[in-house]
């Protein structure tokens, strides 16, 4: 199929349209037994016309999908340690470190050190767990926001919210990022015991004996890099211990090993 | 102990319940980080086999453990657990796919994270699950998959965007999509972002564009609310993209451009049928004859690369020319009739489309037919009359009527080239005979 050489130049040229030749139709055109009339053609989903192109799309995807998901050979680098205070995890591949950092250090609550998968969940957590103003307001109005992005419903209690998540949004009843805050008395920011371990979905059976070690090793809360998130001052003196699991990350694991 | 277990993967009995239980136990309760990770890696390898997948899902607590690891505070275990889920998502067994249901709320939650590799994996997993199971889709919609994708599409990572496009395209392709899915997608910010990602320019990425062009195609051919897409500039963007594609095709032998060409051609063709398209017809893109130039460059490319896509290109040409004297004039002034005639030998479907486009031009009257004549048109028509396909012949007869009507001398020339004999062979064919006789009369008696 030879194209006129000027065509490529036309494509590269300025936008514009041709001055149309005059249209002059004879009423006899397209009359019986003839039937031609210019028609815009539209094809809906599933039309046979699409079969060939759809097959090619399918083959392309098959190709793409077989390449996904296998852990690719990552370039190894000399071992290095996570620089976040209190974390001793060691890496030999940058991508591993990237995921570790984002999963564990990116959205961390400066009050209780819990890590969250997203900024949205972190903000919700801080509001509900560490903001006493929230607690006051919650006595009078619906303050517990639905966790699903796009849903604007608010609830009186976290239990009502959980019910909404389960019934309306088909969330699991034990959704790990919606643990109710359990406190021993009037709202004390950050006070919680084994809920700490649950909240991050730690599958291990918490061993009681760790509590003291973790406490004694408890690090000063590091100056929060994303400090601008925290609208409220840090009220808890750093020396107070919040029970096991307060210091997240692999430090705990190492401690466990040592005392096996 | 670790070495013992990994060597088990080489044994044919791998996949038995006991092995899987061992890996799960180690992954969940092992003391050494590397050990736990290794157990999951071994499990993942096993899960590449359908038998192992079946055994795994039947094992009590297995999915629960996997989901627990997926949501644990150990990042690398999370990643490996996600990879295991990803393996399961490849299954063609609905039981396996549906066993993954407990994980979906977490996969969605992780889409708002920041770890691009992990998000990419979650997206591919979701896409796979979506394809295989309506039960999964029925759960994902109330769980908020549309807003989750709308938030995630703002990611700067190309790999994430490509994965997102894939997952979304699978969602839009579902049979219940026109009623249950597309309306909420149209109501979100997704269309605007998709169109942005299809803007030609230095930032255009082929892999990403392919996915979102297909997404657009599924939305458009479902005919839910194409007017909305047009107001968001879909015609304009796609028109410019077509020009860009034609440019790319000239510059490079790059494999893969036809993967983008196909959905773009489809989207444009279908959108042109919308009433709203008339309203924006004032926009330059729709009158710009560079679109015709681009289309022919693409037709030539498709002829070499992927002839089965020629009908799609010609479909667009039909929709461009049907009601447009301007584009019909462009075909003539840019000398595109002869290249068009070259396509007549490709296939019956292509031939019918070529003849239809020629009819679009001819029916506009004498000024147009004059420019179609003389030239190779007559001999091409005599060739097509020799086809046995009724539709091809029928369309040739329609074109002949128009030429006889508008072009003095055409009938004469036809007779001189043994046109009557060419017509004769179809005299007995039911769908053709009336037209054949009418043309014979006109040719002989004027």
Tally of DSSP β-strands of chain A: 4
Distance between the termini of chain A: 78 Å
Determine the fraction of residues in helical runs of chain A and give it as a percent range: 25-40%
Summing up helix and strand content along with how strands pair, one would put the structural category of chain A as mainly alpha
Count every helix of chain B, treating DSSP H or I runs of 4 or more residues as helices: 32
Q: How big is the Rg of chain B?
A: 29 Å
Main beta-sheet strand count, sense and barrel state of chain B: none
Mean model confidence by pLDDT of chain B = 91
pLDDT under 50 segments of chain B (min length 5)?
A: 1-12
Estimate the mean pLDDT confidence of chain A: 73
The share of residues in extended strands of chain B comes to under 5%
Q: How many H/I helices of chain A?
A: 9
Radius of gyration of chain A: 31 Å
Question: What spatial form of chain A do the alpha-carbon principal axes imply?
Answer: elongated
Outline of chain B = elongated
E-strand count of chain B: 0
Which two protein chains have the largest interface (Cβ within 8 Å of the partner's Cβ), and how many residues from each?
A-B, 95 and 129 residues
End-to-end separation of chain B = 97 Å
Oligomer: heterodimer
Q: Could you tell me the strand content of chain A as a percent range?
A: under 5%
Low-confidence stretches of chain A: 184-260
């Amino acid at each position: 199929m030879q194209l006129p050489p000027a065509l490529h130049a036309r494509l590269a040229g300025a936008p514009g349209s041709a001055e149309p030749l005059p249209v002059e139709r004879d009423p006899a055109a397209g009359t019986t037994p003839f039937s031609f009339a210019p028609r815009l053609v539209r094809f809906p989903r599933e039309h046979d016309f699409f079969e060939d192109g759809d097959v090619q799309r399918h083959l392309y995807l098959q190709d793409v999908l077989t390449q996904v998901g296998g852990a690719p050979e990552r370039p190894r680098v000399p071992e290095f340690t996570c620089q976040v205070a209190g974390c001793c995890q060691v890496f030999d591949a940058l991508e591993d470190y990237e995921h570790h950092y984002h999963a564990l250090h990116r959205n961390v609550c400066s009050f209780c050190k819990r890590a969250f998968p997203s900024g949205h969940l972190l903000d919700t957590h801080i509001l509900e767990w560490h903001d006493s103003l929230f607690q006051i307001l919650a006595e009078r109005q619906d303050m517990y926001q639905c966790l699903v992005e796009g849903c604007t419903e608010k609830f009186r209690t976290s239990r009502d919210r959980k019910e909404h998540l389960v019934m309306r949004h088909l969330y699991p009843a034990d959704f790990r990022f919606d643990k109710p805050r359990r406190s021993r008395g009037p709202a004390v920011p950050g006070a919680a015991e084994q809920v700490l371990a649950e909240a991050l979905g730690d599958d291990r059976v918490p061993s009681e004996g760790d509590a003291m070690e973790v406490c004694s090793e408890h690090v000063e809360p590091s100056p929060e890099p994303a400090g601008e998130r925290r609208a409220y001052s840090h009220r808890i003196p750093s020396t107070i211990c919040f029970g096991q699991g307060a210091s997240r990350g692999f430090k705990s694991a190492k401690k466990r090993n040592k005392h096996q | 102990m670790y070495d013992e277990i990994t060597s088990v993967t080489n044994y044919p009995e791998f996949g038995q319940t006991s092995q899987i239980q061992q890996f799960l136990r180690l992954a969940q309760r092992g003391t050494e980080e590397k050990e736990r990770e290794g157990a999951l890696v071994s499990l993942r390898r096993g899960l590449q086999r359908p038998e192992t997948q079946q055994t795994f899902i039947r094992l009590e607590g297995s999915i629960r453990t996997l989901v627990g690891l997926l949501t644990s505070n150990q990042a690398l275990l999370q990643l490996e657990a996600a990879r295991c889920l990803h393996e399961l998502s490849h299954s063609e067994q609905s039981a396996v796919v549906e066993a993954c249901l407990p994980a979906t709320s977490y996969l969605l939650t992780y889409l708002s994270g920041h770890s691009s590799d992990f998000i990419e994996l979650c997206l591919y997993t979701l896409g796979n699950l979506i394809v295989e199971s309506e039960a999964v889709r029925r759960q994902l919609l109330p769980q908020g998959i549309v807003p989750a994708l709308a938030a995630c599409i703002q990611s700067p990572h190309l790999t994430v965007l490509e994965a997102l496009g894939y997952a979304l395209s699978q969602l839009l392709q579902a049979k219940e999509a026109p009623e249950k899915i597309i309306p909420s997608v149209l109501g979100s910010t997704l269309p605007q972002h998709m169109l942005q990602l299809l803007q030609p320019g230095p930032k255009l990425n082929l892999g990403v564009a392919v996915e979102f062009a297909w997404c657009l195609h599924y939305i458009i051919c479902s005919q839910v609310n194409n007017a909305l897409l047009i107001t968001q500039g879909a015609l304009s963007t796609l028109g410019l993209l077509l020009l860009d594609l034609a440019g790319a095709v000239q510059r490079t032998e790059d494999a893969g451009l036809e993967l983008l060409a196909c959905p773009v051609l489809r989207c444009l063709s279908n959108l042109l049928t919308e009433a709203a398209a008339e309203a924006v017809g004032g926009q330059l893109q729709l009158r710009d004859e560079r679109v015709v130039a681009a289309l022919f460059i693409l037709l030539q490319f498709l002829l070499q690369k992927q002839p089965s896509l020629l009908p799609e290109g010609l479909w667009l040409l039909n929709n461009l020319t049907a009601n447009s004297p301007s584009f019909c004039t462009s075909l003539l002034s840019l000398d595109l009739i002869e290249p068009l005639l070259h396509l007549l030998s490709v296939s019956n479907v292509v031939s019918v489309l070529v003849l239809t486009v020629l009819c679009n031009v001819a029916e506009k009257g004498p000024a147009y037919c004059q420019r179609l004549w003389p030239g190779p048109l007559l001999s091409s028509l005599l060739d097509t009359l020799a086809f046995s396909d009724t539709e091809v012949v029928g369309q040739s007869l329609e074109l002949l009527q128009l030429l006889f009507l508008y072009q003095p001398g055409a009938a004469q020339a036809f007779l001189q080239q043994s046109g009557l004999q060419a017509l004769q062979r179809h005299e007995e064919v039911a769908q053709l005979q009336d037209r054949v006789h009418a043309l014979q009369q006109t040719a002989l008696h004027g």
